[in-house]
Amino acid sequence: MPKQVDHDERRREIGAAVCRLIAQRGLDAVSLRHVAAEAGVSMGRVQHYFATKDDLLMFAFELISDRVAARLGAISADDPAACLRAVLLELLPLSAAARAEAPVLAAFLAQAVVEPRLGEPLRRGSGEMAAWLAGMISAVRPGGDPERDASALLAFVDGLMLQVLIGQVSAEAAEELVDHQLGRVLTRG
Amino acid sequence: MPKQVDHDERRREIGAAVCRLIAQRGLDAVSLRHVAAEAGVSMGRVQHYFATKDDLLMFAFELISDRVAARLGAISADDPAACLRAVLLELLPLSAAARAEAPVLAAFLAQAVVEPRLGEPLRRGSGEMAAWLAGMISAVRPGGDPERDASALLAFVDGLMLQVLIGQVSAEAAEELVDHQLGRVLTRG
DNA sequence: TGTTTTACGATGCGTTCGCATTGCAAAACG
DNA sequence: CGTTTTGCAATGCGAACGCATCGTAAAACA
């Protein structure tokens, strides 16, 4: 048998090419041939590591989900308020990494509307995120309805992400909007 | 020549079929053959009224844009606060009409991320909406920064629309979130 | 009434798609 | 050192795609 390769690493390389393709040209541009070209490998290789196109797309979805989770998990701050702010900002396409991932997230988000298999993990992630936000909110300002505030904040940053992506809101304006919104939630109102 | 037909009406019929297809199966499902089948007409007819697939999609986009604008324009209320609330709720997939349109909007919104020709009209509409919201906000509660509040509200309802579409937030919860958010904006905080 | 123009239906073309199949070089393994 | 297994490249297939073309029934118009 040929050189033993790192199976998962190869899958991740190809999955990354899928994400790049989605970010630059949308989900429609994802075909086995385009993915192979983007990854700089043969089409046979793509087929060797992914049984179907659907597998490939699902893997790409998990890949960016994991990337986002990793970025969020790397955030650490002394006080909960700063941590909250950092997490919300990390969800927006402000850094180079986030700018690369956000279009992919947006594409999968829209696809989830008509594809239940994407909706399920997306709902789970969204739920976990809301629970975490609620915890942080009540840590900063006990009382009130932290779950409601968390849901509202999540919807707000999701929408803001799209507005920034289509160029309706600049990165600076988005950051200011987050700060203002966060101020409203974290101060007794 | 055959029976003189209402050209625009025929285009709207086909465009409506496109919207139905997008709402139920996503943008990928839009092909000339599928559209013809959904509209119950021949493929030749679709081609007769739309030179290219791109024309067809652009027309469908204008169609739902006009529909949303019409629904928003039909809103009338005595006091500005009620009007503001009604408009925000109308942007969410709560009524049957909005539930049919929201998935289409979401699909085009995501497509706009990688398709500048969709981004431009979307930015314009979003800008007009924000300006209108800002006007209403300052009518209810003068002072503050109505433009900022308007942008934040718009991002919030956009994100909330997606959350409702993927089933993360129920219609009732969404309505309550809008009320709460609106209360924050319209009362001195 | 004859002519012209319009609204299509039908069909075909070249391309691209996802996927299956085949073949084979090479390295791990006995 | 042979055998076997693995990683992949190449090719082919049927289906679906967007689009161009052609034919024609029929109504508007002269």
From TrEMBL, chains A, B:
What are the protein's GO molecular function terms?
DNA-binding transcription factor activity; transcription cis-regulatory region binding
Q: What is this protein called?
A: Transcriptional regulator, TetR family
UniProtKB keywords = DNA-binding, Repressor, Transcription, Transcription regulation
Q: Name one Pfam family in it.
A: TetR_C_6
Q: Keyword check for Transit peptide, yes or no.
A: no
Ranges for domain HTH tetR-type come to 8-68
Gene3D superfamilies, A to Z: Tetracycline Repressor, domain 2 (1.10.357.10)
Instruction: Write down the InterPro entries for this protein, in alphabetical order.
Output: BetI_C (IPR039538), Homeodomain-like_sf (IPR009057), HTH-type_TetR-like_transc_reg (IPR050109), HTH_TetR (IPR001647), Tet_transcr_reg_TetR-rel_C_sf (IPR036271)
Q: Answer whether the UniProt record assigns the keyword S-adenosyl-L-methionine to this protein.
A: no
Highest taxon of source: Bacteria
Segments of the chain annotated as binding DNA: 31-50
Its source organism is Lentzea xinjiangensis
